[in-house]
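Hey L., structure's done. Input below.
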Amino acid sequence: MAGYADSLGYRPLREAVARYAAVARGVTCTADQVVIVGGSQQGLDLVARVATDPGDSAWIEDPGYHGALGALVAAGLRVAGVPVDADGVRVAAGRVAAPAARLMYVTLSHQFPLGVTMSLSRRLELLTAAREMRAWIVEDDYDSEFRYVSRPLTALQGLDRDGRVVYVGTFSKVMFPALRIGFVIAPPSLLPAIAAARQFAGMQQATLEQMVLADFISDGHFERHVRRMRAMYAERQQDLIDAVRVECVDLMDTAPAGSGMHLVGWLPPEADDADVSRRAAARGVDAIPLSAFAVGRGAGRPGVVLGYAHVDRAAMFAATRRLAAAIRESMAQRTVRPWGLGTGENGVRVEFHHSNADGRNACRPGATNRTGGATQ
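Output:
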C-alpha cells in the first residue's frame, strides 16, 4: 500500500466496479478496461484530451452540463450544442451542426438538466452516427442508480458493438462528494493512451479510499445503500411534487421523473427564470434557472431546477411557498434587480440546488453556495 499505485487504479476496486457495472447497468467490460479517476469531471477531462486533438469538433446536449462544456473547451475542442427532445439528444441535428465531430457527450439515462431518458431508437441512431463519423461517445451515467419506476436501463455501452462508447460513472453522487472517486470504462483501443496520460500526469488516486470502497462494494454494502437511498429519494420526489401542486398553482408545473434527484419546475412562458432565481435567493431559496444551462438556444422555455434528495417534507413545503412568492413578484415586476443572497425566514437557507463536486448534486444539509441545498 505504501508503494506507487497502479496508474489505472487499485485492482480489486477495478474488479468490483466491473462486476457492479455488468450486473446493474448491463455494461460489457473486464476489470482491465476500468480506470479509477477523481470523479466524473476528471474522467471526462482525461477522455477529451486522449481521444481528440485541439481544434476537433464535439457535441454536447443543449441545455447541458456546463462542467462537461468546460472540459471540452479546455481540451481545445470546438463545441456544438445539440438540442434535446422527448427522445433525447437529436442526433440528426447534431450531424448537421457538427458533421465531423470526434466526440459526443451525452447523459442519456437521465439527461441533465431536463431529465428525459433517451429512447432505444435514438440510442441506436447515435451509435450508428458514431460509427459512420468515427467519433467517440462519452456516456456520463451520473445518477442511474436512482431509478424509481423500473430497473435501471441498460447502458449505451452495453449496446455498442464497435468500441465507440466510453462509459463514465461516479461514486461521489451516490455516496458523498468528498469521496472524489469515479471511474471510466474505456474501449481497449483507448486504454494504452489513457494509461500513459495518467502515468505521466501523476493522476493516481489515494489507495486507502479505494481499498475501503472495494470492500464496501464487494461485501454488498453499496447495493444495500443504493436500495435504501432509492426508496427515500422516491418519497422525497413525491413530496416536492405535492408541494408544487399545493403552493404553486398556476405559477409552476412539474411532473414525476423516473429517475434522478431533481425535477424541472416549468414557469409560464413569459417568465424570466433568472429573475425568479434571484428573487427566490433573497428569500433563502436557491433554485437554479434552467437558462443557466443553455449551450445555444437552451430549453426554449423558462424553468428552474429543483433538487429534493436531502430536503424533508416540511422544509419542502416551506421552501416551495417562498419560491411561489418569488415567482409572483417576478411576474408582477418583470424587472431585474440586484438582489443579494441573504437568508430566508428565521435565518434558514433552503436550497433546491443540484450541484456538487461534479456540478450536479441534489440538496445537502448546510450548504450556502453552489455545492448543494440546505435542509432545515
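The two ends are 41 Å apart (CA to CA). Residues 61 and 82 are 5 Å apart (CA to CA).

-- N.
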